[in-house]
Design a protein that fits this description.
The complex is a heterodimer of chains A (about 120) and B (about 450). Chain A is an alpha+beta fold and about 120 residues long. Helix content of chain A is about 20%, strand content about 30%. A four-stranded antiparallel β-sheet of chain A has the order 2-3-5-4. In chain A, strands 1-6 form a two-stranded antiparallel ribbon. The radius of gyration of chain A is 14 Å and the shape is elongated. Chain B is an alpha+beta fold and about 450 residues long. Chain B has two domains: about 270 residues, no CATH class; about 120 residues, Alpha-Beta Plaits (2-Layer Sandwich), CATH 3.30.70. Chain B is built from twelve helices and 19 strands. Chain B has a ten-stranded mixed β-sheet, sandwiched between helices. In chain B, strands 5, 14, 15, 16, 17 and 18 form a six-stranded antiparallel β-sheet that branches. A three-stranded antiparallel β-sheet of chain B has the order 9-10-13, with helices on one face. The longest helix of chain B has 18 residues. Chain B starts with a strand and ends with a strand. The chains are: A alpha+beta (about 120), B alpha+beta (about 450). At the A-B interface, strand 2, strand 3, strand 4, strand 5 and helix 4 of A face helix 9, strand 14, strand 15, strand 16 and strand 18 of B.
Chain lengths: ~120, ~450
């Protein structure tokens, strides 16, 4: 069953120079394994085509049911160099949650996380 | 000392001005920590100091001090802040002036100095400290004549020293945000500089506190509708224990929310490799943090592991790197998006005809794609759209000339356009960022105590 990542995860993003980080957190512990299998660095890189120019790195934080992604060359130069309205990548977190993930139909979805 | 309460009062320069007062009046705290400095701030402050040697610090602190100095002494609360910017002594003197005027005495202020190395770059280079860009490997010599600020990130140690010497208020220049929160723990609990797990725990608490309300319900993505009374948001408070366990909470009766989800979002904010969160004080491993509920609006953090600190400090430098300008125009229905795109093409043609050279021209449609770019579906019909165009270039004249090409679009471009009230866009200087490392042995923080 395909669902928006938004249904099973929440996220926060920020900047470090021209690199953005996006932390993606499973809304429930049982969703975390699907984040690990569905959100590969390659899929995230493909999702952000046209936004992220550089490589994507992925780190795991099972204690927080979370993954952290570093999106390199994502902010149009970063800082005051960037001409972007979102020069600090604050909204890349919700852009990440536009991804579709495949989960078993038996999984019970939470009440929150609707568009 | 069993437990101390460290309260976040400001997450950045420009944060909610009522927050520090609320932290002091709405419940018990022992320390008030306030973060004012971002990377670009240091360059702005250097510019202000150049114009007036009595400036160069976060001036918001002074009217705030007028308001809270009586509360601080009445409640025995100490303040730790990096508001000193590039002129911490001037910041201290301004606070002493206020104290004198409103009759607060005695008052002991500790100042941490030594982080500002702007005047020492050549001397350091001669001593073999090269400060090459740690991300690109570029040589400092390529930009050294354009460097506008250069500051070392000190950690908690010099702040803890100032507290040990009896400071009521500690003013620093560039210090890690996490060090502001960790220092009171080191001071109160007598943690040694090699108790890595405890230092890491205090560092993690500092990371949670460093963005103010972003840990207590602000910018909360999991379920923003569920956050009560954001108008009266309570900023986060760390209740720290000598064993290194920490409870994050906020004052009773305030708005906002402290939950495992709000804490997780903040823990993930602006981090890299979570196993290796590097500060001058230690390396913290965020994959060891255990979270547990501890009552309403209370989350306990425990189990945190740390490793020995590295032998270098991070240096944050800024240098001037050309100019930018931005313009916006609003296009109304019908055909709002198409008209905005047509205006963009017309403008770009005129800029090219003029022979103006830019490093980048960026067009975004606010309301359509400025946040999510190509991931945002193109809407069929919108009521209106804001065309936002930015340019960046080395030549100030070209950027200035761009500003003169915007207003003509109103009468010589597509119809139904408004929103050009601010006058011609002016060029602003690009402050580029130059991160580097410096051996800890190359310099020493210097603590200056003064009582009035």
């Amino acid at each position: 069953m395909k669902v928006l990542l938004l249904r099973i995860a929440h996220a926060r993003s920020g900047d470090k120079g021209d690199t953005a980080n996006v932390g993606v957190i499973a809304r429930r512990e049982e969703y975390y394994p699907f984040l690990r299998t569905e959100l590969t660095a390659e899929r995230v890189k493909a999702h952000f085509a046209g936004i992220v120019e550089g490589p994507v790195e992925r780190f795991e934080l099972p204690n927080l049911w979370a993954l952290n992604f570093l999106l390199h060359d994502a902010l149009g130069g970063g800082g005051t160099l960037s001409l972007k309205n979102d020069a600090q990548g604050k909204t890349l977190s919700s852009a990440m949650l536009r991804m579709e993930v495949d989960i078993p139909p038996t999984i019970i979805l939470p009440d929150e996380g609707h568009v | 000392m069993d437990c101390i309460r460290i309260a976040s009062g400001q997450g950045f320069w420009g944060d909610l001005l009522t927050a520090p007062v609320d932290q002091l009046t709405k419940g018990p705290i022992d320390y008030l920590v306030m973060d004012y400095l971002a990377e670009v701030t240091m360059s702005i402050l250097q510019k202000q100091k150049k114009k007036d040697p009595a400036l160069g610090y976060a001036r918001d602190l002074i009217p705030l001090m007028e308001q809270i100095l009586p509360l601080l002494s009445a409640r025995n609360v100490k303040v730790v802040t990096n508001a000193g910017g590039v002129n911490p002594l001037a910041c201290r003197d301004a606070i002493f002036d206020v104290a004198r005027r409103i009759g607060i005495s005695p008052l002991k202020i500790g100042v941490v100095r030594g982080d500002d190395i702007l005047g020492q770059l050549e001397e350091l280079a001669l001593a073999g400290v090269l400060l090459d860009n740690m991300e690109t490997g570029d040589k400092l010599a390529t930009v050294i004549d354009r460097v506008s600020s250069a500051n070392v990130y000190f950690g908690a140690a010099p702040i803890a020293e100032a507290l040990a010497r009896g400071a009521d208020i500690v003013i620093t220049g560039r210090t890690t945000d996490t060090g502001l929160t960790l220092a009171p723990m080191i001071h109160e609990f007598g943690w040694r500089s090699d108790e890595w797990d405890k230092l890491a725990a205090g560092t993690v608490a500092g990371h949670v506190l460093e963005c103010g309300g972003q840990a207590s319900g602000g910018n909360f993505a999991a379920d923003w509708r569920a956050v009560p009374d954001l108008a009266h948001i309570g900023f986060p408070i760390a209740e720290a224990s000598p064993d290194g366990s920490v409870v994050i909470t906020k004052h009773k009766g305030t708005g906002g929310l402290v939950s495992q989800q709000t804490i997780k979002e903040q823990l993930l904010y602006e981090i890299g490799d979570p196993t290796t969160y590097i500060t001058p004080d230690c390396i913290a491993d965020f994959t060891t943090i255990r979270l547990a509920d501890d009552g309403p609006d209370r989350v306990r953090l425990s189990g945190i592991k740390g490793r020995p600190a590295t032998d270098s400090y991070k240096v944050s430098m800024s240098y001037l790197d050309g100019y930018t300008a931005h313009a916006t125009l609003t296009y109304a229905w019908p055909d709002a998006v198409e008209k905005a795109e047509a205006a963009d093409r017309i403008l770009r043609t005129r800029l090219a005809d003029l022979g103006l050279r830019f490093d980048e021209i960026r067009t975004e449609l606010l309301g359509v794609n400025s946040c999510h770019g190509p991931l945002a579906p193109r809407p069929d019909i919108v009521g209106e759209v804001v065309l936002r165009i930015g340019v960046r270039g080395r030549e100030k004249g070209a950027v200035e000339r761009f500003g003169k090409e915007i207003a003509p679009l109103i009468l010589t471009g597509p119809p139904g356009v408004t929103g050009f009230a601010g006058g011609r866009p002016k060029p602003s200087e690009v402050v580029a960022y130059w991160p580097a490392l410096i051996p800890k042995s190359a310099l020493r923080p210097n603590v200056i105590m003064e009582e009035q």
